[in-house]
Amino acid sequence: MYDFSADMTDCAAAVETALGGRLSAARLSGPGPAPERLVAAMRHGSLEGGKRLRPLLVRQAAAIFNIPAASSLDAGLAVEMIHCYSLIHDDLPAMDNDDLRRGRPTVHRAYDDATAILAGDALLTHAFELLADPQCHPDAAVRIALVTELTRGAGGGGMVGGQMRDIEGEKGNLSAADIATMQAMKTGALIRASVRMGALLGGADARALSALTAYAEAAGRAFQLADDILDVTATAATLGKAAGKDAALGKQTLVATLGIEAARQHLADTVNTALSALRTFGPRADGLRATARYFASREH
Amino acid sequence: MYDFSADMTDCAAAVETALGGRLSAARLSGPGPAPERLVAAMRHGSLEGGKRLRPLLVRQAAAIFNIPAASSLDAGLAVEMIHCYSLIHDDLPAMDNDDLRRGRPTVHRAYDDATAILAGDALLTHAFELLADPQCHPDAAVRIALVTELTRGAGGGGMVGGQMRDIEGEKGNLSAADIATMQAMKTGALIRASVRMGALLGGADARALSALTAYAEAAGRAFQLADDILDVTATAATLGKAAGKDAALGKQTLVATLGIEAARQHLADTVNTALSALRTFGPRADGLRATARYFASREH
After folding, report:
1. Quick one: which of A38, B50, B54, B113 could link to B79 by a disulfide (CB 3.0–4.6 Å)?
2. Least CB-CB distance to B164: which of A86, A92, A118?
3. CB nearest to A158's CB, from B30, B37, B160
4. Domain ranges, ordered by start, for chain A
């Protein structure tokens, strides 16, 4: 019987331990020793953080193909390093100008803007070093496929492009279709890459990869919809950050466009779409099923 | 008879054409289309720029192993994209706060700080996409070796770590050894990676790779020494930018530490070290020989 809570806790602990070991001057290899201040800023921006949902998705997708959790960890770490770098850069004064993240000073507040820019750049770079290491997967062709997948999820047609669209959207009105594209890139692309990287580790055939991509795209939409609904309905106390922030920033969300009831119905439909995409996989996909339901039900 | 000037001109033209084609919304692949503003900023920060010395080094090192220029171009583009992203981020107000680069507004002046951060992030990400593409090299194991090499040159133990050390060095006194380490990382690491990536494309054995690494490390030191000497001796007119800027910024250089005459002698010795490392290679290494001499003789 699959235990979502145990899987999530175990994954988060594994990520924390592995990232903590990896982010050290001794292991960030290159012609010289990585400076302590840079390493400290990289650690500040990536340790003690979050639910590690993206490594969980890598692990759960790989589990469908009987890949043990330990064998999908490095690919999960690489996605998490990309996620963490993006938060460090997004928090900068030039972007969202946030002082706090998860109750702690953001990297540029704990250090300075230059150090935060460089720490983000280094996390982004070393994510690919991790994927290229034979420890990630014995087959170089699989490792290369992971690199390609992550660049597409993280790059100009993915996460970074979505961030750019989000900034542009603050200035003008976006249609519902524009908002959907922006969100599919900004948060959806890395969720999609996580699931597909798990599938690639497992040697998924084209049909399985296609089904898992459909799952990931729907799950990503559900994640974002739930986030937008929470921003409108939650109090600051349950959210742990200022509620109503999107509206205050003039950010365009589907909730603002559709209204709250239609958005809730759309969320339920989207979770069903994600679950339908998994119907051929049997109980080994229970992890991904639980995560899709979790995305829709989370309270913060 | 090897013609350095023709090789450099041809390489720069090939880089310009290929980067121009690659940096388009249609070719920055991902789940969504890359936004035009992001693509335009990426192009602004990487086209019409510079001598393309790093792709030239990739090409010249690969030429030792009879690899045609067209077959080493993509690896060269990847290094150049890393170099260009680093300039975009270094120019930001939080770092060097430069308004002009090569007589044109820097990316954050032509667009804004947020767009410059994202354009740099995207160039960094897509550099690895280029290396992972089968068009770069047919063998996945070679492509993975290129990814590893570039992450080490560009990451916390390489370029980004050197940039961090340089910023820290502005605040205090560095020893000659500290300066050498900083420079070996900040500019040397990517020069080293360029040469080694050319060697990896050529299937260099351990002995050849070791000799070419020795060449690259000496060439990188020569490049930096010449730069430091120029900063002291050149007029603003020949340099095309403010002379004496390092001293004004309190930047530590070996010229300040050693004095100008000792620095010139050290430069001549360093070029000889680079040339000695190539002695087993015969005329096919004339490209790398010419580049080492060029590094020491350049006037701007």
Report:
1. B54
2. A118
3. B30
4. 4-297
Find the range with the poorest average confidence among A179-193, A211-225, B57-71, B168-182: B168-182
Q: Does B144 contact A148 at a Cβ distance shorter than 8 Å?
A: no
Chain B neighbours among A 247-276 (CB < 8 Å)? none
Q: Cβ(B228)–Cβ(B255) under 8 Å?
A: yes
DSSP conformation class of B174: -
CB B253 within 8 A of CB B231: yes
Taking only residues 180 to 219 of chain A, the set having a beta carbon closer than 8 angstroms to any beta carbon of chain B reads 181-182, 184-185, 188-189, 192, 217
- Say what the pTM is: 0.96
* B155 to A95: CB separation less than 8 angstroms, yes or no: no
pLDDT higher than threshold 80 for residue B245 = no
Instruction: Report CB contact under 8 Å: B161, A125.
Output: no
Rounded to whole angstroms, the Cα distance separating A74 from A84 reads 15
Write out the two tokens for B16: 């310009």
Picking from A94, A151, A181, the nearest residue to B125 by CB comes out as A151
ipTM > 0.90, yes or no: yes
Q: Are B217 and B189 in contact (CB under 8 A)?
A: no
Scanning B66-105 for CB atoms below 8 A from A yields 85-86, 89, 92, 94-95
Location of structure tokens 């119905």: A265
Longest dimension (CA), chain A: 57
Q: What is the pLDDT of residues A201-217, one digit of tens each?
A: 999 999 999 999 999 99
CB within 8 Å: A156 and B181: no
Whether B32 sits inside 8 A of A181 (CB atoms) is yes
Q: What local confidence, expressed as pLDDT, does residue B240 receive?
A: 53
**pLDDT at site B231:** 84
CB pairs under 8 A between A and B: 229
pLDDT, greater one: B114 or A243: B114
Mean pLDDT of B257-279: 93
Residue B65: C-alpha distances to residues B118, B204, B284 (Å): 37, 7, 8
pLDDT above 60 for A258: yes
Contact call for A160 and B185, based on CB within 8 A: no
- From CA A198, how far away is CA A148, in angstroms rounded? 13
* Per-residue pLDDT, B8: 97
Q: Are A66 and A138 in contact (CB under 8 A)?
A: no
What lies within 8 Å, CB to CB, of A72 at 6+ separation is A58, A59, A62, A63, A198, A201
Q: Is the pLDDT of residue B243 over 80?
A: no
Question: Cβ contacts (< 8 Å) between B196 and chain A: which residues?
Answer: none
Q: How confident is the model at residue B236 (pLDDT cuts 50, 70, 90)?
A: low
B5 CA to chain A: closest CA distance, Å?
30
Mean pLDDT of the B119-146 span: 98
- List CB contacts (< 8 A) between A167 and chain B: 114-115
Nearest to A164 among B38, B152, B164 (CB): B38
- pLDDT value of residue B266: 92
Supply the CATH classification number for the domain B4-297.
1.10.600.10
- Distance between CA atoms of A244 and B82, rounded to whole angstroms? 39
Which residue type sits at A47?
L
